[in-house]
UniProtKB/TrEMBL annotation:
<keyword id="KW-0812">Transmembrane</keyword>
<feature type="transmembrane region" description="Helical">
    <location>
        <begin position="259"/>
        <end position="277"/>
    </location>
</feature>
<dbReference type="GO" id="GO:0005886">
    <property type="term" value="C:plasma membrane"/>
</dbReference>
<protein>
    <recommendedName>
        <fullName>Transport permease protein</fullName>
    </recommendedName>
</protein>
<dbReference type="InterPro" id="IPR013525">
    <property type="entry name" value="ABC2_TM"/>
</dbReference>
<keyword id="KW-0997">Cell inner membrane</keyword>
<keyword id="KW-0813">Transport</keyword>
<dbReference type="InterPro" id="IPR047817">
    <property type="entry name" value="ABC2_TM_bact-type"/>
</dbReference>
<keyword id="KW-0472">Membrane</keyword>
<keyword id="KW-1003">Cell membrane</keyword>
<feature type="transmembrane region" description="Helical">
    <location>
        <begin position="124"/>
        <end position="152"/>
    </location>
</feature>
<comment type="similarity">
    <text>Belongs to the ABC-2 integral membrane protein family.</text>
</comment>
<feature type="transmembrane region" description="Helical">
    <location>
        <begin position="194"/>
        <end position="213"/>
    </location>
</feature>
<feature type="transmembrane region" description="Helical">
    <location>
        <begin position="158"/>
        <end position="182"/>
    </location>
</feature>
<keyword id="KW-1133">Transmembrane helix</keyword>
<feature type="domain" description="ABC transmembrane type-2">
    <location>
        <begin position="44"/>
        <end position="284"/>
    </location>
</feature>
<feature type="transmembrane region" description="Helical">
    <location>
        <begin position="83"/>
        <end position="104"/>
    </location>
</feature>
Length: 292
């Protein structure tokens, strides 16, 4: 007599991000699909990954580096040496964050037709958006590396590891917030507008275009500590430490306790936000199909 398992299994129960790991093949397909859809009918295609940050860099460099005097020159000793490297190393990281979070927060609504037809791990969509943004990030990183080499870049192992930590901080943060706002956007479409404002603030609330010393001089030690707790700020400073500082004479100061304190704090905060986003997503995803 054949024995049957009487234990009932509830269909469609999410396993969270563990489902994303188990569905790696689906994740790969989604990333490929997103890239094809985005550049369908485009003349430049993936070259937009170079053009858009290039134009952004030129605008900011001319406005801030030349007109506002942030570029150090023989007639302006108060600026930053190799300001072009300083600026671009921050721009590519903040662009990765803004693209990843912006697309992840819209990913569930944007794939509503697919979600209503079949069941698959819904976390795949925000995570795929972060992966697509990473695909766009690495060509920009290659341009930065070439510019650094021409500027006499000579990093040590600690600086390279700091850059990896900075990228990890941003990736965790973007994934966590993408899960959070991706789920909230299904129920409250105002979430998209809130994310747009958050991204605008993130660009200017981190030392992408200006030096951290300018912030410390204006706000004092207490508020500077609050400013430092922003994971994006920490990540941008790690990129400056890894890519910009080795192209200078080394006399430029790095934020106090960047390696010993702030990088671990940034990782912990980003991991906590990832956990928060994951728990919120799992709680809300049960009614995605109905709400969409």
């Amino acid at each position: 007599m054949t024995q049957t398992n009487s234990e009932l299994v509830r269909p469609g129960v999410s396993g969270g991000l563990a489902d994303v790991v188990r569905a790696r093949f689906l994740l790969k397909l989604l990333v490929r699909k997103e890239l094809k859809v985005r550049y369908r009918g485009s003349v430049l295609g993936l070259l937009w990954s170079y053009v858009k940050p290039g134009v952004q860099f030129i605008v900011f460099y001319v406005a801030l580096g030349i007109f506002l005097g942030l570029e150090q020159s023989p007639t302006n000793r108060g600026g930053l040496p190799n300001y072009a490297i300083y600026l671009f190393s921050g721009i590519i990281l903040i662009n990765f964050f803004t693209e990843a979070l912006g697309n992840a927060s819209r990913s569930i609504v944007g794939n509503g037709g697919l979600i209503k037809k079949i069941y698959l791990p819904r976390q795949l969509f925000p995570v795929a958006s972060v992966w697509v943004s990473a695909v766009h990030f690495f060509p920009q990183l290659m341009i930065l590396l070439v510019a650094c080499f021409f500027s006499g870049w000579n990093p040590n192992l600690i600086q390279l590891l700091a850059a990896v930590a900075g990228f990890l901080i941003v990736a965790l943060l973007a994934t966590g917030l993408g899960l959070l706002f991706g789920a909230a956007n299904v129920y409250f479409r105002d979430s998209e507008n809130f994310v747009d404002m958050l991204l605008m603030i993130a660009t200017w609330a981190s030392p992408v275009m200006y030096a951290w010393t300018m912030v410390q001089a204006k706000v004092g030690d207490f508020w500077f500590t609050v400013y430092q707790m922003n994971p994006i700020t920490i990540a941008v400073e790690t990129f400056h430490y890894a890519f910009w500082l080795p192209t200078t004479d080394g006399a430029q100061a790095i934020p106090p306790h960047l390696l010993s304190l702030w990088i671990p704090v940034g990782v912990l905060i980003s991991a906590a936000i990832l956990l928060w986003g994951q728990l919120t997503f799992r709680r809300l995803e049960g009614r995605f199909a109905q709400e969409l």
